[in-house]
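=== Structure Prediction Worksheet ===
Name of assembly: unnamed complex
Input type: mixed (protein and possibly other molecules)
Chain count: two
Listed entries:
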Amino acid sequence: MSSDTARYVQRLRGHLHLGEALESDFLREIEAHMDDRVAALVARGVPERRARRTVLEGFGRPQTLAHLMRQAHQTASWTEALLGATPFALLAVLLGLGLWRLPIAAAFASGIVIVVTVYGLWLGRPAWFYPWAGVAMLMPLFAGYIAFAVLSDQAPAVAAGHATVYTLAGIAGAALYFPVGLVVVAAGVLVAARRDWLDASILLSPLPIALVWIIALHRAGGLFAADASLRGLAPMLGVIALCAMLGTVVFLRATTRTLKFLTLVASALVLLSTATLLVDPSGGLVTLAGRAAILLAFLLSPALVARRA
Amino acid sequence: MMRGNYLTQLLKGNTDVLILSLLEREPMYGHQIMEQLEDSSAGFFRVSEGTLYPALYRLAREGLIRGCWSKLPSGQERKVYTLTRKGEDRLRDCRSTWSGFAAAMNLVTTQAD
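=== Predicted Assembly ===
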């Protein structure tokens, strides 16, 4: 391989972000194509150096080819789009019908989410993987809420000097959980954003839904006391998850990045308006605009990460 | 200039059908598809690599073609694409649409003669 070709392949690899297996396969294929094409041109009397230049020109700029290849992989089939939206359907059932309170239902749903997420990882992170991984991240988030509940519950005892070793160990563990959880989420977002920041954004998309749920749960008296008062809010939580499900189907089926971006923004705004109705209907327009800005900044933050990477 | 643009647009819109049609004849690898396209059209259709490979990967993703690494008689390994059953169905649909479109275009564009 000439130095120009090697440089081209290296630059293309740097821009592809398709996953190790797919990238290696594609680069192997185009290297073979380059050899064939150069040989064909040389056989027609073209000097080898010029032939190599002509072939590279045919491939176009590495950035453009990488972009076109990513686009070819971005549009999911209907099956993939529906598979990608399924974790939100699961959330809709769990939250909307209040089934998350049943240990068997919660364990069954968690099991499905873990198995499908691991399977998606094993397949090399196809388009449908990210919503599942995002919902999988809700489990540590919920565990974080339990840790928070432990901290709040034990704080008065500690303040009064009645803490046992076990209480202190529990508090230390719970306090440690938050930075560790944050590092795990940030690492997941970084890995996803390295391939495509839109993937990382869809990975983050279930988190605001869970946050709305946890806020509603907390306001209704916490994990164990919230049952009766949260029951009225459950259908709205289900509706939010169903909207996210529809948004995910459109996102995965969208043929352009602009359409994906707009779907992400529209879904976020639908979530925000429903959540505002649910947890804080009396908030003013300024508050709403502020929350919209925070939500969009959160969902679109992977774009900044990708720019720096 | 106008002719070039029109032709580019037409080619862009029909690259998938052209690839499917070639693969209907026999399984081929990327470079072979490019050469066959040019030869079969007497040099009229020239698809660049930058157009061909995204199209091949898109078609494979849609399940219309399948790519597998095979050893050629020369001993070299190449990713050879074959048309799937779904691809055959799509090609049949495209051909039927194209016939209707071409007939209608001819009716309209030749009326002035």
